[in-house]
Amino acid sequence: MNRDRVEGGIRHLRGRAKTAVGAVAGRPLPQVEGAIDQVAGAAQYAYGQARETARDLRRDGAHLVAEAGRRGRDVAEDLEERGQRYRNEAVHRGRAVARRAEDNKTATLLLVAAAAFSLGWLTRRAR
């Protein structure tokens, strides 16, 4: 609770009391002043309540921004870890293929020659 809410509540109650005293005494001026104080107190109370709501929203917004940043960092770390795993797997498989090609030189040479011939045949110009 902030100062505006407290002062507004007090001013509103003081206005109600002034209105009641003016009504009992039969004097219209204190009644009007009391009604003005009631309205002003209610407005000041509402202003204080709006300030608190704005403060709460700002706090919640800052919390959401911090949470989004944390989640973003978590996702980035996860993606980096996955990328590293995929890279390591590709390197491992590439080395396995290179070893297999080294162990089977004749078959590798025939496969490369067949692939080159096929590529050349597919890309040749039609006459």
From TrEMBL:
Residues passing through the membrane, by range: none
Span of domain CsbD-like: 4-56
Alphabetized Pfam families for the sequence: CsbD (PF05532)
Superkingdom, taxonomy of origin: Bacteria
InterPro entries attached to this UniProt entry: CsbD, YjbJ_sf
Protein family membership: Belongs to the UPF0337 (CsbD) family.
Name this polypeptide is given: CsbD family protein
Provenance organism: Methylobacterium durans
